[in-house]
Design brief:
With 445 residues, the chain is an alpha+beta fold. The protein has 15 helices and 21 strands.
């Protein structure tokens, strides 16, 4: 049973910080070392100090980035850089952004969800996670006793009931407003009226919730809860630490944008380019796209456009350097059953990322068990191409985005997609609201 509750959010104090855009941050997992440095320099109270603090040579068990994050959080609360709301609330959150030349608006809300073990309730993950990243978020939770970043999830609101309710609150001045680094506008509204709180809780009860982003945070929250539960002989499920901060947005909304994540492959020991191209033709229809240095950019864009037109045929773009582009389409879906020996649902087997892994990485390149070392991921297709041209990679593989229906179909079967299958855009802005666990606090309707 999905149970969603309001919470006493911690937010930046507008009276202390006039330019809130200066203290907000992208989520920790998309920040490069250079961006981390920029955010540190941008403002002394930038949220980066909490979610991705710097590491120093002398760090130890008692002085490290997690301990420092907790000290910053306590200090900023003490000096009223942060303020905690007096009563529980939901927080409506709107993002207005531009993607690929088109304008979008995404509306949802922040609340806390009662934790459910994966596969035992109605909270569905869709992507595999890395142990190291989960431990990192767990250590941050242990130090701060807080959800600093939110899990990003979607649900179905076919009759638009919750969206209409949220829109009523967006007609007034926002509680917070800030721009992100891509120029998107982020607005937050506090919802603390009892009738609205009750209605949101009732509407969300028993809905299926699909995690779009933040799988590591959700799994870390479950482990954190289990650690505290083991010390509590009177565990009731109402404990505040049995909940996690989550952003909910309707799947029917126009702003749920999924972008592709492109790949490059490098460090191939026994790679024979002529043989590889011949082998490709056993599995794919291969169409060359001729280019020169002058026309390469236009050819790349043409290839990407053609890929979207034939997405139902499992299409990929391939770049082998020296301005050699190819369109690959799977010859026959029956090949999927032959290549994928695992007992998996049809929806999982027919994912482009699955076909790429088994057809190319496993069958043709023999690197299925080495992808962590040999495969690099790129949000921008031109960056992937540049990695090949610069000699940092042997080939680039351009992808179509995974469709929302595919995510739901796979997650609904309690299966997880391979790493880096989806890129929801834009990410949620970090620093808008924090959920902190106070000792002895209970979360009840």
């Amino acid at each position: 049973m999905v149970r969603v509750f309001p919470f006493r959010g911690i937010i930046y104090n507008k009276k202390k910080l006039r330019q809130l855009s200066q203290v907000m941050s992208p989520p920790y997992d998309v920040i490069s070392p250079a961006e981390q440095e920029e955010l540190y320099e941008q403002n002394n109270f930038n949220f980066i100090r909490l979610i991705l603090g710097k590491e120093f040579a002398g760090d130890n068990e008692y002085n490290n980035r997690y301990v420092r994050a907790a000290a910053f959080l306590d200090g900023w609360l003490r000096h009223k850089i942060f303020l905690q709301d007096d009563k529980p609330a939901f927080y409506a959150y709107e993002q207005k952004f531009t993607c690929l030349g088109k304008k979008y608006s995404r509306l949802g809300f922040f609340g806390v969800i009662r934790l459910e073990d994966m596969g035992r309730g109605k909270v569905y993950p869709h992507e595999e996670t890395y142990p190291k990243a989960k431990l990192d978020r767990l250590q941050l939770m242990r130090a701060t006793n807080a959800n600093l970043d939110s899990v990003f999830a979607f649900y179905s609101d076919k009759k638009d009931k919750l969206s209409k309710l949220l829109k009523q609150f967006t007609k007034k001045a926002p509680t917070l407003e800030a721009k992100d680094r891509d120029g998107g506008v982020n607005r937050l509204w506090r919802i603390d009226k009892k009738p609205a709180l009750v209605r949101i809780m009732q509407e969300m009860k028993d809905k299926a919730v699909f995690i779009a982003d933040g799988h590591h945070r959700y799994e870390a929250a479950i482990r954190y809860k289990n650690e505290l539960k083991a010390r509590n002989t009177k565990f009731t499920e109402d404990e505040s630490y049995n909940h996690a901060l989550m952003y909910f947005t309707p799947v029917e909304g126009k702003g749920l944008v999924v972008l592709p994540i492109h790949r490059t492959v490098s460090n191939l020991e026994y790679y024979d380019p002529i043989r590889f191209e011949d082998d490709l033709r056993q599995v794919f229809n291969v169409t060359p796209y001729l280019a020169t240095k002058k026309t390469a950019d236009g050819v790349r864009k043409k290839l990407l456009k053609e890929m979207t037109k034939v997405a139902d045929k499992h299409a990929f773009g391939l770049y082998l350097g020296n301005h050699r582009f190819y369109l690959l389409t799977l010859k026959d879906e029956a090949l999927v059953e032959e290549m994928v020996a695992e007992e998996k649902p049809a929806a999982w087997k027919k994912l482009d990322v699955t076909i790429l892994h088994y057809a190319v990485f496993d069958r043709l390149l023999n690197i299925a068990h080495e992808t962590e070392d040999k495969v690099t991921y790129f949000k921008r297709d031109d960056d992937a191409i540049k990695a090949v041209d610069d000699g940092r990679a042997t080939m680039a593989i351009l992808m179509n985005p995974t469709r929302i229906e595919e995510i739901i179909a796979v997650a609904g079967e309690l299966e997880k997609m391979p790493h880096k299958s989806t890129y929801f855009y834009p990410k949620l802005l970090s620093g808008l609201v924090i959920n902190r666990f106070e000792h002895g606090d209970k979360v009840k309707p």
